[in-house]
Amino acid sequence: MAKRTLALCRQAPYGSALAREGLEAVLAAAAMDRAPELLFLCDGIFQLLDNQEPGAIDQKSLRRNLQALPMFGVETIHVCERSLMERGVDTGQITIAGVDIQRVDDTGGFIAAFDTVLSF
Amino acid sequence: MTLHIVSKSPYSSKALADCLGAFAEGDALLLIEDGIYALSGRMPESIAASPVYCLQADAEARGLPIPEKIEAIDDARWVELCTQHNPIVSWFK
Fold first, then answer.
1. Contacts of residue A10 in chain B, CB cutoff 8 Å?
2. Is B91 on the interface with A (CB under 8 A)?
3. Which residue in A11, A82, A115 is closest to B87 by CB distance?
4. Per CATH, which fold does A5-119 belong to?
5. What interface predicted TM-score (ipTM) does this complex get?
6. Smallest CA–CA separation between A49 and chain B, in Å?
7. Which of A70, A98, A111, B57 has the fewest CB atoms within 10 Å, i.e. is most exposed?
8. Which domains does chain B have, with CATH numbers?
């Protein structure tokens, strides 16, 4: 059986390169037909907010990468319920066309079901 | 069971707190590099029953005493832990 891989996205989008690099790694793997599952948690959920317009800080919007996910066969992402609540974000603010957003209650149990975990 | 590896001080980074937020029963925690500074305060009660390890060389380098409940390990034991747990999650930021 193929190994199950999970990518953890924990960083906010523009303060460091890690958020973008994580998504790029996921898209690269997906292009090779090896798409990992995605779990957004901690500040990583800020990557998902609508209405990101980082032009004035000379950065490209990370939303474009997220919107590319379904084209690469990633049609479901997972979001940590507690991280959303801690940050006062509700799922209405984090829709991505063509992507089903699943809320995860038991983050530890969810992670434990994978063979390999990549941290971004 | 997951092996969580934390390498940042809990006083300057949320790595440990985030890790504990994703900690399941039966999981293990390994403190390395500046993650060792977690030994200087009280360990969170949520992991009182879980195995906690620290890299001895990193603890000695930083001059931190290793509490009794925490197993100090060397690199060979680290490798062994990696073979005994799946998956392995790094909390490095």
1. 18, 93
2. yes
3. A115
4. Hypothetical Protein Ychn; Chain: A, (3.40.1260)
5. 0.79
6. 20
7. A98
8. 3-91 (3.40.1260.10)
